[in-house]
Amino acid sequence: MVAVEWVTEEDEYVPPFSEETQKMAKEELREDKNTRDQALEQIRNWIKMNPRIENCRLDGQFLLRFLRCKKFNVPMTQEAIERYLLLRQVYHPAFNHLDIAEPNMDELLSLGYLFAVPGRDIKGRRVIVARPGVFDPYKYTNADMCKIHAITYESLMEDEESQIRGFVHFADGAGVSFPHLTLFTPKEAVRIVKNGERTIPMRHKEVHAINAHPSLKFALDFGMSLISEKIKKRVKIYTSLEDAVNNKMDTSLLPKEYGGTMPMKEMIELWRKELIDLRPKLLSHDKMKVRLELYSEKAREGAVSALKQGLNCSSLGSSDSIHGISGSFRKLEVD
């Protein structure tokens, strides 16, 4: 049997953060040295023995993002890792080759479609700014939209302080119109949101949105119906920036255009440097693979119910055609 060359090998994990953050990890996530060491050993052994997983990262920094998000519940972590690996593959056009240097990704970043601001808030959390209205639905595809989100979130998840402290989201809905809503079918939207919340190991602590146009209320209501009650309670929607400020939303870390001190253009350039530094690591994720023929057709299509049922194996042989979500990305040619 040929030895697998893993994307990253096992390492001797040492926490890179302060005692204060370690205390928070213990209180909120049940993390201490003993729990962490045992869980990492269990997860690594499970990956190596799992016939469906062909390749994966084995370093602590990567595996702990899932363990922390699942509060060190090992079975739930195993499901999240396998779901993550499978969905990266079936959504191939949107979640592989996460390269910020690609022209469309570079343009979307320069427009300020999605970026993390420098520094941290008073609770030590990174703040993510989204401006969906600058996304041209006639120029860019739904795969472009998914990919810039994947680049942003994958990069942020590499930071262990953020894995523990979580994230704050700020969205400006100005400019969003009906064509934006037709980028995804309702079925695609459901699968992306549901799988995303279960699979992307981010702790979403606060979500603030301004300028949500009343004509799109039905779409907003639909989107809110897809997220969990826990996240729903953390969402605050304001009619305008003034309304948000009047309701005590903290604008100090936001771009100058939204009440902060640093111009948006400067923030975007600082974020670009972070992304460029992490580019090799994100590109190495393309080596992570599962054996698609060992999953049910529903699981390969990203059906939430199939993935919840223990990622059922399929009796289909590898000669069968693989029907996946990747086929549903419109206006996109796949090599």
TrEMBL record:
<dbReference type="InterPro" id="IPR036273">
    <property type="entry name" value="CRAL/TRIO_N_dom_sf"/>
</dbReference>
<dbReference type="GO" id="GO:1902936">
    <property type="term" value="F:phosphatidylinositol bisphosphate binding"/>
</dbReference>
<feature type="domain" description="CRAL-TRIO">
    <location>
        <begin position="105"/>
        <end position="266"/>
    </location>
</feature>
<dbReference type="InterPro" id="IPR011074">
    <property type="entry name" value="CRAL/TRIO_N_dom"/>
</dbReference>
<protein>
    <submittedName>
        <fullName>Alpha-tocopherol transfer protein-like</fullName>
    </submittedName>
</protein>
<dbReference type="Pfam" id="PF00650">
    <property type="entry name" value="CRAL_TRIO"/>
</dbReference>
<dbReference type="InterPro" id="IPR036865">
    <property type="entry name" value="CRAL-TRIO_dom_sf"/>
</dbReference>
<dbReference type="InterPro" id="IPR001251">
    <property type="entry name" value="CRAL-TRIO_dom"/>
</dbReference>
<dbReference type="GO" id="GO:0016020">
    <property type="term" value="C:membrane"/>
</dbReference>
